[in-house]
Amino acid sequence: MRALKLVSTKTLSREEWLQWRHKGIGSSDAAAAVGKSPYTSPLALWLEKTGRKAAEDLSQKEAVRWGTLLEPLIAQAYAEQTGKKVRRVNAILQHPEHPYLLANLDRVVEGGGILEIKTAGLRSQGLWEEGIPEHYRIQVLHQLLVTGKSWAEVAVLIGGQEFRTYRIEPEGGELSELLQAEQAFWQHVRDDTPPEADGSESSGKALQWLYPRSTATLVDYTDHAAMNALFRELLQARAKRKAAEVQEAILEQRMKESLGDAEGAVFELGKVLWKSSKDSRTLDTQKLIQEHPEWAEPYRITKPGSRRFTVQAE
């Protein structure tokens, strides 16, 4: 199986490229589509793919900008270290049987492989100690699914000075499982029905964006068995969280009692710190407004209200 070349990217503007991305699931979307992205939930991705919300422009973020600048250097380092030739693929690729599966490749490798190029800061170095982070592995598996290729390698530059390579070959039914999960997500896009929220911060923001204002409506679920069961689970979860928070506060306060005025302590499993922060100067805006309200008036703005979720048990 060979991927189709959907469109050349040589002369595509960023806006045009984003429009093509709306037509399917790209490799950088794959982890989000199957609920494995640490940044984007399926619900947030669904908002983008259905055209409800524009995708965030990451191109000017420092990490992304430096990743783009370093990409050709990392590709060159990979070629020199491995002795394998690499080349660009200036096209958006499309699965021949599932046209909504798309991929952009950093490079292809002689011998039929794919090269995915990454940069990582020192703060994220730990994510690579056990191998390729899961969401990046899914990204590469998606590329293999689209292209029909049997292997890929990931070249990563960590902290600007440590170069590593990792090989990926699909195991067992990985590709078929990924295909099924992506099909399920894309069905939500086709049907224009949102996937379930998954408890992530991304899903919370997506729901707030999807339903920004409330109406004066109180839904009666008193005779709705499923919703009443959900409410009971919510009450139980909140009770457990409250008990855990109280226990944590007790343990923290006992630790502070033991520390006294010491700034911290070390233990067999780690350490705690209770350090004083530096004094800072700040503006007493409340006093300023009280004494000179006319100064503040030109700077007042109206901020849209947000929706607050509260739970009241009978």
TrEMBL record:
Keywords, sorted A to Z: Coiled coil, Endonuclease, Hydrolase, Nuclease
YqaJ viral recombinase domain residues: 16-149
A GO term for molecular function: endonuclease activity
InterPro entries linked: Lambda-type_endonuclease, NF-kappa-B_Signaling_Reg, PDDEXK-like_dom_sf, Restrct_endonuc-II-like, YqaJ_viral_recombinase
Sections of the chain in a coiled coil: 227-254
Keyword Ribosomal protein: no
SUPFAM superfamilies named in the record: Restriction endonuclease-like
NCBIfam families: phage_rel_nuc
Protein name: Endonuclease
Source species of the chain: Acidithiobacillus caldus
